[in-house]
Amino acid sequence: MGCRDPVDVFAENENVTLATDQPARICGGTPRAIDAFIDHLASLFPETPGPIEIEFLSPAVFPSESPCGENQNGCTFETTVYTKFLPAYHEIIHALGNTLAYSPEPGHPMLEEGLAHLFDATSQRAGPIDVQTVERGLQFVGGFSEFSDEPLRPAAQQFMYFLWTRYGSAAAIDLVLHSEYGVSLFEQNELFFRTTGSSLPELVEQYSQMAECSPFAARLLPVDCKEPHIAAFSLGWQESFEVDCRSYDAFGSDLGEVWVSRTFDVDAAGEFTLTTYGLDDNQGYVTMGRCDGGCDSNFRVSMWIGEQSIVELEPGRYVVSFRRRENIRGRVGLQIRSGVRR
Ligand SMILES: [Zn+2]
After folding, report:
1. CA-CA distance, 330 to 278, in Å (whole number)?
2. Cα–Cα dist 38/174, whole Å
């Protein structure tokens, strides 16, 4: 660390201190998103987590001001998150866990990373994860950087999603907080039995019976899914936003990306035509996914401006995000029209 601290406090409350050397890149809605995410996680933890610190650092100072290493975009050391991206839900989960007295050491990477990826909207890897890869992750005895080198993160996310949906958030979080680092999880079988009533081999067997589920579906978006509601869906709707980091409802910057989210409900299953519009410069796109989905609703749309597609939507709540690169502000919109009913 240099002798002069380039980071200033941007926002502070009893739960979190957000500091940065690039305040203009903290979008209008981001401090609120971080607060809402911490409140949500804290309500699920067995006891109230302690305060954490987030340092949002420009790429120029990141190597010298963070302990993360050259090629990383973020890491957590004790209760401080060092990150090039916001809102940094993934790293916040690591930091919150580290504030609890009985977990001064991180948990097993298969569980710890699994929980973090569950809330990480940037997980891009699709496709089902076979049970052999999951078993390799459960047997893993190395450190976190070796865990990242192996293609085990999607397996960790998938197995955690199974635990979370089958046994509930309390059991899943208890496993993360009490698991031991550097020891195969098959040697920590008592912990699984205590929290779920099943042995780890029994859980692996249950996992293998589960429907195939992509990481797109196996994740939770508690903040985006609470954004304002678009009404009158049965008639179809269209909505567009000037996606601008300075807006009160813009989230990011997440590695140069900024977005605004809205939710809507589908009352009856049917076929719908999606059309995107706005400033068409290959910088803007729309994503859409289910909030309450689960593996049986393996649905996610990602469309550049100017594209059209026809999709089948099941009843439920959906979240749509209007996204752009942060360097050029511009409008991003989506029109939905109901098509042939089945
Ligand atoms: Zn992580």
Report:
1. 7
2. 17
Q: Is 216 among the domain residues?
A: no
**Residue 261 — very low, low, confident or very high, per pLDDT cuts 50/70/90?**
very high
Tokens 């989905």, located at residue? 293
128 within a domain of the structure (yes/no): yes
* Number of structural domains the chain divides into: 2
Q: Are 240 and 292 in the same domain?
A: yes
| C-alpha 116 to ligand 1 mean position (Å) | 6
Cα of 324 vs centre of ligand 1, distance in Å, is 25
Q: How confident is the model at residue 329 (pLDDT cuts 50, 70, 90)?
A: confident
- For ligand 1, the distance from its centroid to the CA atom of residue 176, given in whole angstroms, is 12
Q: Which residue has the tokens 């009843």?
A: 315
Angle between helix axes 169-178 and 30-44 (nearest 10 degrees) is 90
Q: Which domain holds residue 86?
A: 8-209
Cα 281 to middle of ligand 1, angstroms: 33
Q: How far is the CA of 326 from the centre of ligand 1 (A)?
A: 25
**189 and 233 housed in the same domain:** no
236 phi and psi, to 5 degrees? 85, 165
Q: How far apart are the first and last CA of the chain?
A: 63
Tell which wins on pLDDT, 232 or 168.
168
